[in-house]
Amino acid sequence: MFRTAEGKAEVLLTPGVFLRLAENSSVRMVSTKLTDTRVEVLTGSAMVEVDDLATKDDSIMLLSKGNTILLVKRGLYRVDAESGLVKVYDGEALVKSETSQLTLRKGKEAVLSGALVAENFDPKDDDELYRWSDRRSGYLAKANVSSASGLSSSYGGYGGYGSYGSYGRSGWLYNSMFGMYTYVPYDGFLFSPFGYGFYSPTRFGRLRITTEAAVAWAAVERV
């Protein structure tokens, strides 16, 4: 179990998946397997940023009020325990209760009680947890550029970095300059639901650009 009181928290799940908790919130880890990660949202609010699902067998599942919420695609998801509400800001989630199931896509929400019904909501209607998650994603992207640059120049990518990155195609890497872990894809380049770019060492090596330029280039590629 993990709970917050007067602060927020960020929990690293599988590589490329971030769980963020608002104040006065709590969760319980039901399964810690990388291919079967299940988290029960007990109180408060939780937001999950899924930047990458490293393999097709990965499974990220949230549980709330007896319902299961399978996060099918990369995206941004939220569960509010008190109101029993699940929201999909981006991506796709399969929601199952004891009597029915429902697929939620971008801009859809459902109340986790009674019959499951999809309703519209405005994904741009944010609050403090959303804004904090946005800032955290931006910090992680900047740390990623620094880490990808270091791997590219010092080790020639993951391949020369020993066993690191042995899980599927990606991994977490501690960046001492930023004092935090960040996500580094094994290959290619991807965007978070907030629009921030995450480089692999090989992609960064091909670009051969500075950290500051990489952040700007990510914005250009997104457009």
Structural notes for this entry:
The protein is of the alpha+beta class and 223 residues long. It has 2 domains: 2-120, Jelly Rolls; 128-222, no CATH class. 21% of the residues lie in helices and 40% in strands. The strands form 4 sheets. Strands 1-4-5-7-8-11-12 form a 7-stranded mixed β-sheet, with no helix packed on it. Strands 2-3-6-9-10-13-14 form a 7-stranded antiparallel β-sheet, covered by helices on one side. A hairpin with a 5-residue loop joins strand 17 and strand 18. The longest helix has 28 residues, at 128-155. It is globular, with a radius of gyration of 18 Å. Mean pLDDT is 84; it is low at 160-168.
> What helical percentage do the residues reach?
10-25%
The CATH class name of the largest domain reads Mainly Beta
Count the domains. 2
What is the CATH topology assignment of the largest domain?
Jelly Rolls
Low-confidence stretches: 160-168
Dominant shape: globular
Q: Please give the count of helices.
A: 3
The arrangement of helices and strands along the chain is: EEEEEEEEEEEEEEHEEEEHH
Q: What is the level-2 CATH architecture name of the largest domain? A: Sandwich
Summing up helix and strand content along with how strands pair, one would put the structural category as: alpha+beta
Largest sheet data? 7 strands, mixed
Q: What is the mean pLDDT?
A: 84
User: Which oligomeric state applies?
Assistant: single chain
**Radius of gyration of CA atoms, rounded to a whole number:** 18 Å
